[in-house]
Amino acid sequence: MSTRALWQGLVAGTAGVAVMTLAEKAEQRLTGRPDSHVPARTLERLTGMGERPGRQPVPVNLAMHYGQGALLGVLRSVMAHTGLRGPWSSAKFTVVRVTSDQILENATGVGAPPSTWPRRELVTDLLHKVVYGFATGAVADALAARSGPGPGQRHAAARPGRRADAGPVPRHRAYGR
Predict the structure, then answer these.
(1) Residues ≥6 apart with Cβ < 8 Å to 58
(2) pLDDT digits 0-9 by tens, 14-60
(3) Which terminus in the chain has less CB density within 10 A, N or C?
């Protein structure tokens, strides 16, 4: 699973970023909102790159924007391979994406906690992260499904329905052996 989850996650995460970017560009055309260069500033500070105020570091922005999304896609792929698939899992993953952004942006001093943002900016950012989370999840789930059900799904299938008394499945059944 590990090698497969890695490459499938990079594919899923990159696809999720591409869909999110298209949604962002459409929203920017409607609202007139300018590009954000927070990803670039965050990467510059994380790596110790020089910062030049007033300069819009587009290549650095794209590297952080796509790189972070692709890498986080690996986590969503691991989720899918273990059996955590579908909308609930994509919603959980979306929270991870927002949290990742906030940790990096706040740790570097580039960003501030979302609770201090103007509401419109907060809603816009969250909607774009939802697009990323669900697009990444759809691709990760589809790719993982080609390998069959994950261990969690096999466990759930052993005793269908919502049950409090469902213990672990035998090891040979959990791993598909």
Answers:
(1) 40
(2) 999 999 999 999 999 999 999 888 999 999 999 999 887 777 789 99
(3) C
Structure tokens at 79: 């989720």
Length of the chain: 177
- Buried residues in 18-48 as b, exposed as e (16+ CB within 10 A): ebbbebbeeeeeeeeeeebbbbbbbbbbeee
Give the tens place of pLDDT for each residue, 114-161: 999 999 999 999 999 999 999 999 999 999 999 888 888 877 777 777
Residues 6 or more apart in contact with residue 153 via CB below 8 angstroms:
83, 85
Residue 149 corresponds to which amino acid? Answer: P
Residue showing tokens 């580039």: 110
The arithmetic mean of pLDDT across residues 56-73, rounded, is 94
- How far is 108 from 104, CA to CA, in rounded Å? 6
| Neighbouring residues of 36: CB distance < 8 A, sequence distance ≥ 6 | none
CA angle 139, 3, 100 (to 5 degrees): 60
What distance in Å separates the CA atoms of residue 18 and residue 11, rounded to the nearest whole number? 11
CB 150 within 8 A of CB 82: yes
What is the token pair recorded at 65?
Answer: 């924007």
Residue found under tokens 């979302």: 114
The CA distances from residue 2 to 6, 40, 152, 168, in Å, are 6, 30, 16, 22
